[in-house]
Amino acid sequence: MRFSHKLLHVDKNLIGMDYHLEEMEEIFPRMMDSISNDVHMVGIYGLGGIGKTTIAKVLYNRIVAQFMITTFIANVREDSKSQGLLHLQKQLLHDILPRGKNFISTVDEGIHMIKDRLCLI
């Protein structure tokens, strides 16, 4: 079965990102062990405006083909404040579930459905 993944837009003329991307690419092969079902998380931190989201987008674009289902949710803090957690849950479920299967109306329903669908305990 073939999956089509949407790549995220990243400017081709990035300046000053090579060092950071090289460091991240050293870490990813160890984390991307295709035999393991382990869950890994990477944190990218720093002052606002230094390119954290850009680095995340580049890395996403480089590994997206290795997964059946993917999503990239940006601006989580800002969107959760302005639109609420329910909005973010709906966005996540929209991206990972077949159409019409993400009927949630409360944050608690969203928590339950996300745990159920992502097989989290």
Automatic annotation (TrEMBL):
Residue stretches making up the NB-ARC domain: 23-96
Show the SUPFAM superfamilies listed in the entry. P-loop containing nucleoside triphosphate hydrolases (SSF52540)
The protein's matches in InterPro entries, at most eight in alphabetical order, are given as:
Disease_R_plants, NB-ARC, P-loop_NTPase
Cross-referenced Pfam families: NB-ARC
Q: Which domain of life is it from?
A: Eukaryota
Instruction: Report the protein name in the record.
Output: NB-ARC domain-containing protein
Q: What is the lineage of its organism?
A: Eukaryota, Viridiplantae, Streptophyta, Embryophyta, Tracheophyta
